[in-house]
Amino acid sequence: MFTLLPRENVFFSLFNKSAANAHEAAKLLADLLEDYADVPAKAQRLKDLEHVGDEIAHQIFDRLAKTFIAPIDREDIHEIASRMDDIVDLADTAANRMLLYKVDRPTDDAKQLGRVLVKATALLAEAFAHLSDLKRSDEILRLCIEVHTQENEGDRINHHALAALFEDGTSPVDIIKWKDIYFIIETATDVCEDVANVIHTVVAKNA
User: Fold this and answer.
1) By percentage, how much of the chain surpasses pLDDT 70?
2) Which of 32, 150, 153, 160 is the most buried (most CB within 10 A)?
3) Number of domains in the chain
4) 63, 8, 25: which is closest to 192 by C-alpha?
5) Rg (CA), the chain
């Protein structure tokens, strides 16, 4: 027998947990970039957060499969869960690349990209905190726009970083390393924008 739960608030609670985990991963990556010490230990902490993110995503998918009536469109729930998990995966991957490539020290551009990711994930966490109350739709949409602003800033920093690699006499090996690391962190900011777009869509459908 089905239980009708048209306002299954557990999804909003899980979104909040996922957003908090992504923000924690972003802060940890930024800390690694700013204070490049105890790198293996910090990378392991990011790996632990990646496992937490996987578990939250699985909880959302499992709950979605068992819920007869979801509070928002099912495809939006699935997309949010998947993309939030991607943010943590990318932060974890960036840290592991630095270990794998035996990076001596992070560049200033990498540090700036890390700060942008922290800001973007903080904005998403705030937006998710309001999502269950669509009377706050104007505030939610403002936060989504701010995420777009951070993504644009990430693009700008990435372009500057790539240009600098070829202007500063960087060795070909280091160019390959840093192009990859920059791409991973900047992609994480792109995914934040993807999530903001889904939130915007949810608000537009339900406000």
Assistant:
1) 96
2) 32
3) 1
4) 25
5) 18
> What is the span of the domain harbouring residue 79?
10-206
Fill in the amino acid letter for 180.
D
5 lies in a domain? no
* Distance set, CA 79 to CA 19, 76, 97, 178 (Å): 14, 5, 26, 29
CB half-sphere exposure, 71, CA atoms < 13 A: 17
Give every CB contact of residue 47 below 8 A, 6+ residues apart in sequence.
92, 96
Listed residue (115, 139, 119) closest to 129, CA to CA: 139
Quote the tokens at residue 181: 């690391």
CA 77 – CA 29 distance, rounded (Å): 26
Contacts of residue 13, defined as CB under 8 A and 6 or more positions apart, other chains included, come to none
